[in-house]
Amino acid sequence: xxxxxxxxxxxxxxxxxxxxxxxxxxxxxxxxxxxxxxxxxxxxxxxxxxxxxxxxxxxxxxxxxxxxxxxxxxxxxxxxxxxxxxxxxxxxxxxxxxxxxxxxxxx
Length: 107
Prior knowledge:
Elements (H helix, E strand, L loop, with lengths): L11 E5 L3 E8 L4 E2 L2 E3 L2 E8 L2 E6 L2 E9 L5 E2 L8 E3 L1 E4 L5 E8 L4
Antiparallel strand pairs: 1-2, 2-11, 3-10, 4-9, 5-8, 5-11, 6-7, 6-10
């Protein structure tokens, strides 16, 4: 059975109101964030870049490694059905930290 993605797109919520939700995503070397789904448009700001592996928890040989850079800002596209990210694991030698800002849809 395939691993279902969680709704947790960061390691903790830092702020939330009716317009935005701000997540901290901090991973020490070796730490992971489980497979998750983005349902809202979002962007992320990298405070401390690191080498992160995105791996399918059901098929560990299916992975890609991404080197994030300090101060990088990225605004991915989220389709109507959502965007799934596989398990993120910090495979680098230093802490990786970014902030995920979800833009809530207006009624």
